[in-house]
Design a protein that fits this description.
The protein is of the alpha/beta class. It contains six helices and eight strands, in the order ααββββαβαβαββα. The protein has one domain (26-186): Glutaredoxin, CATH 3.40.30. Strand 4, helix 3 (84-100) and strand 5 form a beta-alpha-beta unit. The chain starts with a helix and ends in a 5-residue tail after the last helix.
Length: 191
Amino acid sequence: MTKAITAALLYVAFVLGANPLWAETPDRAVLLEARQGDMRKLAIHEEARAVPEIKVFDSDGAEVSLAEYRGKTILVNFWATWCAPCRKEMPELNALQKELGGDDFEVVLIAVGRNPAPAITQFFEEAGIDALETLLDPKQNLTRQVGIFGLPVTILVNAEGQEVARLQGDAGWHSEPAVDFLTLYLDRPTN
């Protein structure tokens, strides 16, 4: 019986280690349990999902793909200037980028649909958004392919470029529960 239990435990360890979603992050069950506050709305996928390499645009009109962020975990927020919940959570995302942003984590904004550059600039100035820039998906090509049908939606993309979790609606992204959850996911000590 002991050999059977040992074999089963080794099998589970192998399966979890071989799954790219969980290979270098805490166990999914630990992450599910760690969700507190607004993070309870975060749906953690059982299996990582491919993110299409559809191009969006930077503020200068140059094409950008989320594949360019491979090697770092990104929190991708789909938003619009006309979306009140999007505007509400933007200062939280800005503060999160200031606290956790770096070589292995970045907050990436994607403005969905018609968002004139002057409106984005004005909103960023009014809201004090100084640590973030936004990409643009004016024809909503990436937005549709990722399955975004309302705003805001935020997806957590692992370093391999796969979606591992999704939150529909706004959240307190710089709240203690959010920072603790992301720190656990990134496996970094808190300050």
